[in-house]
Design goal:
Elements lengths: L15 E4 L2 E10 L4 H5 L5 H5 L18 E9 L2 E5 L21 H7 L9 E3 L5 H4 L3 E4 L2 E4 L5 E5 H8 L5 H16 L3 E4 L6 E4 L2 E5 L8 E7 L2 E5 L8 H4 L11 H15 L5 E3 L8 E7 L2 E6 L15
Parallel strand pairs: 4-5, 5-8, 8-9, 13-14
Antiparallel strand pairs: 1-2, 2-3, 3-4, 6-7, 10-11, 11-12, 12-13, 14-15, 15-16
The chain binds zinc ion.
The site of zinc ion has 5 residues, from helix 4.
């Protein structure tokens, strides 16, 4: 897979998971290029991957290189259409060549999943990194305008305050200019105070703090009919971090706190029925956390790929 031209994924129905009365779909943007894993998670060496054979073939390739993906989770909840993170986006000038001026059919995929842009009610930004905010906006002539004009865009106030108080390098300033500020300027951005025990934003949908990767990062907890699921954001980038919870991400702002957050979460999820949905996990993307010796493994739970008659078209 070329760094300059990341592969488009083939058109396929968006896989879906049901969580009580909620339906979550994965809407694909791109597979991330093979260079991503060694850069992002340098501790995930081929030896580490080999020691956890369950990672292959889905989560690592035959050369023991990690697979990673960019996608959105589209949640139908109590009549609301909610997107969790918006990927890299099309046509954006980016320092990372794998993210520079993408041209994917993401919006078509979103529509096929039952989430045309004009229908979206809430857009949750787990954190304000380039690969989580890109489809916040689309190009309209010389301007970047909100892709989801009816939506409230939600992120934590702690996240906003961190970046507002930081001297940004030009590539990150560019990202804020083209993907975050237009949403705020259109009056669509809400900054939320997220307490430690979570903040419900819709029936059964709550934000929970996952600090470390960024200071104000949140995960999204889904609870309905006795079932629970958790959308990670970047508190866990890849299932290899279940096998080796000490593997930090190269881009964690506070690696020690990120590691503590990850270990606490894994201990809470271990051997429960909570479905873990990974924001960069490649297909099958979701699973249950199971204790495995001194660490954990992911027991994969693939989504179903029926047409979105069960909540996508008429949530
Ligand atoms: Zn990310």
């Amino acid at each position: 897979m070329s760094l300059l031209h990341p592969a488009r994924t083939e058109p396929a129905p968006a896989p879906a998971w049901t969580v009580g009365d909620l339906v979550v779909r994965r809407v694909d943007e791109v597979e991330l290029p093979a260079q991503t894993g060694p850069w992002l998670l340098p501790g995930a060496t081929p030896e580490v991957v080999a020691a956890a054979p369950w990672l292959q073939p889905d989560f690592a390739d035959a050369d023991r290189v990690l697979r990673l993906a960019s996608h959105t989770f589209a949640v139908a909840a109590g009549g609301l259409r909610i997107l969790v993170d918006t990927g890299i986006g099309n046509g954006k000038d980016r320092a990372n060549p794998a993210w520079h001026r993408l041209d994917t059919d993401y919006l078509d995929r979103l529509e096929r999943a039952g989430f045309p842009p004009g229908s979206v009610d809430l857009v949750v930004l787990t954190h304000l990194h380039t690969d989580h905010v890109g489809w916040n906006t689309r190009r309209d002539g010389d301007a970047w305008v909100p892709t989801f004009p009816r939506a409230r865009y939600l992120t934590s106030r702690a996240e906003w305050d961190h970046w507002a108080g930081t001297e940004l390098e030009e590539p990150r300033r560019q990202m804020f200019r083209d993907s975050v500020h237009p949403v705020a300027e259109h009056g669509l951005l809400d900054l939320l105070d997220v307490p430690a025990d979570g903040l419900e934003i819709a029936p059964g949908v709550a934000l929970v703090p996952m600090p470390g990767h960024t200071p104000g990062q949140v995960a999204v907890r889904l609870t309905s009919g006795g079932a629970t699921a958790l959308i990670t954001g970047d508190c866990i980038h890849h299932p290899v971090q279940l096998a080796e919870p000490g593997i930090d991400s190269h881009v964690d702002i506070d690696p020690a706190l990120a590691g503590a957050t990850r270990r606490k979460l894994l201990a809470e999820l271990a051997d429960t029925d909570t479905l873990l949905l990974g924001s960069h996990f490649p297909p099958p993307t979701a699973g249950l956390v199971r204790r495995d010796g001194a660490a954990y493994r992911l027991l994969a739970v693939p989504g179903t790929t029926g047409r979105p008659a069960d909540g996508g078209t008429a949530p």
